[in-house]
Amino acid sequence: MKRTQTPEIASILFALSNVISKLLGFVRDLFLSNYFGVSKSVDALSATLPINSIFQNLMTSAIVVSFIPLFLEEIANDRVKAEKDLSALFNLLFIIFLILAIVLMVSSNALVNILAPGFKDETLRNIMGKLIDFVSISAFLWAIVGFLFGVAQSKKHFFITAFTPLLANLFTIFGLVFFHKTFGIYSYVIGMNIGLLLQFLVMAYYSKKYLNLKFGMYFSVSRNLLSRLFVLSLPLILLQLTNYFVTLLSNRIASTLSEGSIASIQYANKLRQLWVSLLTVPIATAYYPFLSEAAITGNFDRLSQIFRRSAEFALILGIPITVVSFAFANPIVQIVFKRGAFNEEAVILTTLAFKYFSIGIFALMITTLAMRVLYALKEMYLVLLVSVVIAVINILLFYPLVKVFGHAGIPFAISIGIIIETIAFLIALEIKTHIKLGEFFISVLKITVPSLVSVIFMYFIYNIAIRFIGNAKTLNILVSFTISAVVFIISYFILLKIFKVEELDTIIKIFNK
Predict the structure, then answer these.
(1) Are 34 and 188 in contact (CB under 8 A)?
(2) CB within 10 Å: which end of the chain, N or C, has fewer?
(3) Of 227, 238, 232, 233, which Cα lies nearest the Cα of 384?
(4) How is residue 218 annotated by DSSP?
(5) Which pLDDT does position 483 carry in this prediction?
(6) How do residues 133-189 score in pLDDT, each as one tens digit?
(7) What mean pLDDT value characterizes the chain?
(8) Which candidate, 160, 215, 169, places its Cα nearest to that of 192?
């Protein structure tokens, strides 16, 4: 099976798959919002789904991220031994995460009090308890498939990991469409679990056939590897638990607010995460093995160069998306979600949350990339320290901002924290790799000014279009937004040329190649 040899091609491959995946994800969320709106059942689902994230992130953002540099080192010294350790580690992790999933299922009713203490209705509590049972299964599958994805990516087999994840979204959509009347909100998790099971079977077959992974009751992992993996992954595990604690606390606060608060925050967060997933995760995932190789050889100039290229690649798209999302939060929410059970009240709740989430979109993109560089440098404890400080800032901001802004105070606090976190990581990279922070901020300024000027043009054109077309229907809003967005794109790229933003030429060259 042919490997992907360059980060540019791998990045574009991931970008393509992410576009498809996120389109499917949006279709999934459209059906969810259409059938259930921001109802109590969606609040329960939204409070439960982060369990998936913590399992998946523990594996992909902690264990796998730590393991890839170690595996690359081992395979350079002794390929046979490295392959044996890889298989034994997978078998061990399979058992550990299976036990964790079973514990969650056994404790599902007790977990309702922890995840959403504001849910007093007994029917709602029962719904959430059953959802936890289903999500415990999906969380286990996400974790195991995430490890297999990491193995494939470490060997630069990007194609299979780019397109296999489409199955989860695809079958979640099938579940919602065909079974929402029969199973209600459970149709979401039933479809998701079927898709994840298929993902696991596909990746298990591929890993055995092409990645030399052996399955079975073989757990003899090198003690040296386990100890090094523990040292490297422990801070990242603590990091993921810290992040989940912030999510848990925010959901607990939102559960005590008006109905639909948790759901509207989650819908808004999905809009925010869309841009990060489409534009940054493909870049970060594709570049990580190359960053690891540069870090292993001590080539800090190469490491710094890769980060600058990837960050500027993301910024030239991320900054305009940030300003457009903030200025046009309401039209975007209406275009995406307003139909069926997603009424005007749901639009207002989600718009407020999305507006404040959008403030930190560009910062989240840079943080995602900067963390990967620090991971490659094995600076896991530095990442943990910064993240714990940011978590404390978030927690301190939640209560006062919720009092002032209601449920929107939660995304506002998160955005403030992300911006502070980005600045801290950039300073750390300047110290570690000399990324020329001054030049980097000049690039940010050169991209920000065209973005702000262009969004003013866009706002002007949008208001003119709305007056002529009207805003009574979602289609009218979509047409007006599209017309004004075209004006934004044209003016933005013209201004980038005027400001002589070199990154634009780099992007054009990559896509031409």
Answers:
(1) no
(2) C
(3) 238
(4) -
(5) 93
(6) 999 999 999 989 888 888 887 777 767 777 787 888 899 999 999 999 999 999 999
(7) 83
(8) 169
26 C-beta neighbours (distance < 10 Å), count: 16
Three-state DSSP string of 50-112: HHHHHHHHHHHHHHHHHHHHHHHHHHHHCHHHHHHHHHHHHHHHHHHHHHHHHHHHHCHHHHH
Q: How far apart are CA 438 and CA 463, in angstroms?
A: 38
pTM of the complete model: 0.76
pLDDT value at position 288? Answer: 62
Whose structure tokens read 């002794």? Answer: 78
In this predicted structure, what is the pLDDT of residue 400? Answer: 93
Task: Look up tokens 């780019």; give the residue.
Answer: 162
Question: In whole angstroms, what is the distance from residue 290 CA to residue 7 CA?
Answer: 7
Q: pLDDT tens, 60-83?
A: 777 877 777 777 777 777 777 777
Sheet strands (E) in 352-395: none
List of residues 6+ apart from 188 with CB closer than 8 A: 32, 45, 172, 175, 176
| Per-residue buried b or exposed e for 210-224, using 16+ beta carbons within 10 Å of the residue's own CB | ebbbeeeeeeebbee
- Find where tokens 């490297």 sit: 232
* Alpha-carbon distance values, 214 to 95, 98, 350 (Å): 15, 18, 47
Phi/psi of residue 178, nearest 5 degrees: -95, -20
Residues of the chain with pLDDT under 70: 1-15, 18, 158, 278-293, 296, 472, 502-513
pLDDT recorded at residue 286: 63
Would you say how long the chain is, in residues? 513
| Residue 370: predicted pLDDT | 82
What are the CA-CA distances from residue 439 to residues 38, 164, 308, 309, 445 (Å)? 45, 39, 10, 13, 10
Tokens 């992300």 correspond to: 418
DSSP string, 242-295: HHHHHHHHHHHHHHTSSTTHHHHHHHHHHHHHHHHHHHTHHHHHHHHHHHHHHH
Structure tokens at 389: 């400080």
